[in-house]
Amino acid sequence: MGRGDGILGTNDRASLTSRRKWLKTRETWLVVLGVVLHAVYMLSIFDIYFKTPIVHGMDPVTPRFHTPAKRLVLLVADGLRADKFFEPDSGGNYRAPFLRNVIKQQGRWGVSHARPPTESRPGHVSIIAGFYEDPSAVTKGWKANPVEFDSVFNQSRHTFAFGSPDIVPIFCGALPHSTWKTYPHEFEDFATVVDDIAARVYNLLEDYYRDNRTSYIFTADHGMSDKGSHGDGHPTNTDTPLVAWGAGVKYPRPISSSNHSDCGFRFVDEHMHDAPTPTEWGLHDLERVDVNQADIAPLMSTLLGMPCPVNSVGSLPRDYINFNEATEVEAVLANTKQILNQFLRKSQIKQSNSISFKPFKPLSDYTSILDQIEELISGKDYEAAMKLAENLRSLALQGLHYFQTYDWLMLMSVISLGYIGWMIYLVIHVLQSYTSLPVQLLRKEFTNYQRDDYKKVQFCGCLLMGVISTLLFLERSPPLYHAYTTMTVFLWTQIFSEYQFIKASWKLLHGRRVYYAAKILATCAVSVFILEFLVNSFTERKLYTLYFLVAGVVGSLYLYKSIPWRSGIPIFVCAVCWFLSVFTLMPAEIPENTYLVIGSGAMIIVIGIAARWLDLHAGGNKYWISLCNHEKKKPKFPMLFLLQALFVGLSSIMVPLSTSHRTQKQELLALHQFINWSIAGFSMILPLFSANSLLSRLTSIFLGFAPTFLLLSIGYEAIFYGALSLVLVAWILFENTLLYVRKVKRPSASMKNLEDNVLELDDRYLQLFDMRIPLIFMVLFNVAFFGTGNFASIASFEISSVYRFITIFNPFLMAALLIFKLFIPFMLVIAITKMNKLPRSGCYFLVILVSDVMTLHFFFLVRNTGSWMEIGNSISHFGIMSAQVVFVLLLFALTNIYTKDIHIGSVNPSSQKAM
Ligand SMILES: [Zn+2]
């Protein structure tokens, strides 16, 4: 905020020390607050997104009709997708001749749309119990349904089941009236013989009973992609075949009109209603009825004349059942009442706990609708009754969604307000502690802090917290709701108690020119733009390529304008940014290529030599003075650089040596293992002994971590290490130019406030333009991760790299080594924040501030539908951003070991006396 001339009222040493102490306490307090806040808000996603939709306490609706079917056979083919089932194979033969015949002669067919996650357990649950994946299954690691539920099997008199050991026990494990068996895991690939099984089962039952009172349903739990994977919402995964025939099922009917208009209705997988049937299926002349997967459960129950499973959200597909009009209406009504019961139960649960209950308005008068339907049925106006019943059912489904998301608005507002409050609180802290703003305010005598006001605000805050907690307690809200609201109210109380400061700052800003306000706005806009870009880069790492292409051009143009003499620096900056932009185009799964690792070793040594040369020969130039070793005395360890370069060379020799041994199916030699560990361990200690000028220390850190990184590398990521370092050098040059230009323009201003400033001696006040530092930091911090992979590629991490360190399978040590490998580029990025002479804690809080803009966005991007991977990724994105408050702090502390005694030279010789 402009330059402070340092006319501080507290010139005496004692009060300065006490202010520094106060600042330390406040920083610690903020870190603790940040950690607690992120932990609490992190948990909120389980109350918002991952709450089970299943309720208990509904009575099954006993049907008032009789059906022809006495028994039903359900055949589920695992992972059989619709088009593979219906279309002919390459030889022109249809794969399922028996079922095809059934479709043409005997029954009905269609596509059953599964909702992602298209996995076996959720698929079977939606077929047999009639509801889709319970998002709270995430708490069980997707392995089980966390809440007990009702199924078609529960309602039956007896169930015979034979199937996969992963599936059958879910439904029959606790069912007394069931006889079940599972096949061993090896037999799971039976999709090809499924038609044969269907034929045999059909013939067996028909021959045995000879009463035409058996219904048959054939379907699949989910589809499968061409690669054999499943789980997401791709049509190959969600579209499964459905064939029904036998007692109570309609016969085939030729298609009435081929007019496939999109009526707007969407299936659970968001696919269009009335999609045209592919001609190669050879079925386009037969009426096809598509359903949602959960509709199969009420279909089965209705065919058997049983109550629908009480937790089902499926709608009875009328086009499958062959009942007379009166029975059909009764069947739909039973299905409607069963869904309505769930709605009423949810409504009742909510109402009993709420102080001000907001009912679902469209269904406030559901009894009169039910009466009306009964009246129409007794008046034999079945068509109108059917319409009303179906309308009531869809309203009840909407009502279920209404109560599922009842608390969302409140919770999301509280959490968002909390994050915003935290960010504002950070801004206030940064302004008060690391900028010259308090000094300016003091000079203009804006600040006459009134403790009375402060106490009043605190009191009001406590009162509000108490009131909200009491209300939540009366509503019997979960304990975490208290934590969310308390945290949010607490933060805003802290903000309001700084009211005087905010008002004074606002007045000061008001007094400035419009230009300054515009500058602040522009900074905010650019920051948000870059952060949004980073949010998107989590799913598309190629964005970094674009970013670095642009950053190279912008950076070098800026430098070209700023540096008054002819210089190669702009070209260098542009070249290295473009070089780094290549890596995010490479595949996330790193292909093995030992030559690249060796080449990278050579490149690292060359970079080291260049930096060394610069360090030794450019000390005289004023531009380089703050970077290089200008104290002309001999370094303590003159051989250090050679030793480090030797280690890098040695490690790049060890890479092919140890790898070739492993490819010959041989164990890693104990000697190799010993050498690798020694190189890695020893080389990381060496940077501590290097000369303490910026360039030599950073070069030394760069060389010190290189051997470990090379030994953990398998391909192009080894080169990435060098490329990232070059970009970091470019950033250093950029910052140095800014520093140099500023000093040349105003030699004294930036130095003067060091004398009596609360901050550490080497630091200067933050200014608005310094916002670039956390932003550039965040970009580099993220590219340090995405440059060599993405989230999916960590999960399937190439573990062959760790085999240069360990011979036996040891997951913990392996994970530790791989995480350490991820850490190394982060350390490089953090190490260079030292050079800006900024207060490091101020930098840290700014980084947390910008990273929380991303956290807030990721909070809204958490999703509870989609494949398990998509859901898991959305949670981990949010979780990783939430954890930054600890993670970045840890890295700052770790790198501080290496960078704390860096001495930064200065144009102004008088400021060196303190060292
Ligand atoms: Zn399956």
From TrEMBL:
GO molecular function: mannose-ethanolamine phosphotransferase activity
EC number of this enzyme: 2.-.-.-
GO annotation, cellular component aspect: endoplasmic reticulum membrane
Listed CDD domains: GPI_EPT_1 (cd16020)
Lineage top rank: taxon: Eukaryota
Database matches in SUPFAM superfamilies: Alkaline phosphatase-like
Boundaries of every GPI ethanolamine phosphate transferase 1 C-terminal domain copy: 398-867
GO biological process: GPI anchor biosynthetic process
Coiled coil spans: none
Recorded family membership: Belongs to the PIGG/PIGN/PIGO family. PIGN subfamily.
Function in brief: Ethanolamine phosphate transferase involved in glycosylphosphatidylinositol-anchor biosynthesis. Transfers ethanolamine phosphate to the first alpha-1,4-linked mannose of the glycosylphosphatidylinositol precursor of GPI-anchor.
UniProt protein name: GPI ethanolamine phosphate transferase 1
Organism (species): Cannabis sativa
